[in-house]
Amino acid sequence: MSEFFANSGLFFALLGAAVATFLAGIGSAIGVGKAGVAAAGVLAEDPSMFGKVLIFQLLPATQGIYGLLVAFLILTNVGLIGEVKEVTWLQGLLYFAASLPIAFAGYFSAVHQSKCAVAAIGTVAKKPDQMGKALILPAMVETYAILALLISILAVFGIAAM
Length: 162
Known about the structure:
This protein is mainly alpha-helical. It has helices spanning 2-45, 50-58, 62-78, 89-126, 131-160.
């Protein structure tokens, strides 16, 4: 059992990187898909709206990028990208914990941002001159993904400094 704890740090760090990528990525995939369906409906009526609706479809994609960034930082800090370092059991669990803010906030904010993006696409389809106002609504949801990203990054750097 003591051998498990001696070698499990790297496993938990890798699990954290995977969870950050997995959950934030799923949220983004769901979000981009929902917004894409709405965008396609608008484009069927007015193909000239492509540039405007594409912006709304891309908004929920950022959470997946944030999860990937945190995963990259974890993998780099433990040496899975580069030279493998010794990672204690505690450090591995801490890296896993550091991945959770962006994993969960990334998932949920992407899904809910897509709902705002779908509504904004409908607004822009009816009133193209309201693009700026419509863009603010789903962008507000992004705030919470950015806050989670910040906490995850600060935690990862804090663990690396231990």
